[in-house]
């Protein structure tokens, strides 16, 4: 009897253990499934939110393209716009499906190429027949009529484009060359009233620039720089430099002082340590302020309009304004085409610098 009771007790304990093990396995599987669905729901919510936010941002650019490549009849531009939106929405949905269902990166890449080729094929068959290059005639025909202007023709777009590149590039070079050594001094050198200098920079950036227009006009006149790209470039550099210094200083503060001291201990001079050790650590910051400075110079209109008088020194912002001056009704197709040309250099700059703007270099300390 005792042996039978002992056997039943052992069997009962084993049964309860198996039941607990099975229940634990079921609980873990249920929790894993719940966690997976929670993650899927969170990612779906993020994608939905970003999609809804992107729609009002992307749509104006598609509309700009639709107007610039269609005739001025009022109907074709809307048809092209809705067809572009349809193709973009379908391609976006397919790309999301590929990202969700593809098991390997190689398969996902192949499917993305197929989606892109399919979108191009649909675009060529459904949208391309309604497109025209008539609105871009100002690129090869300098005698494009603009009835609202006294001269009757637009100035050369290539002159305006070259002036804009010269102006934005020179402004970027000046801001970068002045901001980098200034930030190094503010970050590394312990001089008196350093905090006061930083506060003064913020105060200078807080002034409304429109209040300085008359004073700057008179100052450039007495300096002989009125109606000169270099004069406007100096004005823009003075206004943009406080912001660039304030932003760039954080990058220098993030570089460990021990790295620079290790280079100096190994025999490098202060300038060599700055050039060979510190500068590579702040490359992302230099590219960031250079990009912002270029964009600021490229989009400038107020000071260019006020301080440049000769149409031969016209920039693209003034060219866009010039193209819109039509007393008989603005040519929306021509204005949209000029806007597309105006956007292209900025888009190219972003594509070239985006990977540098989103990464930070991490240095090591020599042991």
How do you describe this structure in short?
One of its GO terms (cellular component) is plasma membrane. Helix content is 75%, strand content 0%.
What does this structure look like?
With 367 residues, the chain is mainly α. It contains 13 helices and no strands. Helix 1 runs antiparallel to helix 13, helix 2 runs antiparallel to helix 3 and helix 12 runs antiparallel to helix 13. 20% of the residues are buried. Pfam families: BPD_transp_1.
Task: Provide the fold topology.
Layout (H helix, E strand, L loop, with lengths): L1 H67 L7 H26 L3 H22 L30 H32 L5 H13 L6 H11 L5 H25 L3 H9 L4 H12 L1 H17 L2 H6 L8 H8 L8 H26 L10
Helix pairs in contact: 1-2, 1-13, 2-3, 4-7, 4-10, 4-12, 5-7, 7-10, 8-9, 10-13, 12-13
Labels describing this entry:
367 residues, mainly alpha, MetI-like fold, 2 domains, 13 helices, 0% strand, disordered C terminus, cell membrane, transmembrane helix, MetI-like_sf, membrane
- Number of domain modules: 2
Q: How much beta, percentage-wise?
A: under 5%
Question: Any idea what the CATH architecture of the largest domain is?
Answer: Orthogonal Bundle
Averaged pLDDT: 80
Q: Work out the number of β strands.
A: 0
CATH topology name of the largest domain, in short, is MetI-like fold
Q: What Rg do the Cα atoms give?
A: 31 Å
Specify the structural class: mainly alpha
**Count, helices:** 13
Given as residue ranges, the uncertain stretches (5+ residues, pLDDT < 50) are: 146-151, 360-367
The level-1 CATH class of the largest domain: Mainly Alpha
For the termini, the CA-CA separation is 76 Å
| Main beta sheet strand tally, sense and closure | none
* CATH evolutionary superfamily of the largest domain: MetI-like
This entry's quaternary arrangement is single chain
GO molecular function: ABC-type maltose transporter activity
GO biological process, one term: maltodextrin transmembrane transport
InterPro entries: BP-dep_ABC_trans_perm, MetI-like, MetI-like_sf
Main location: membrane
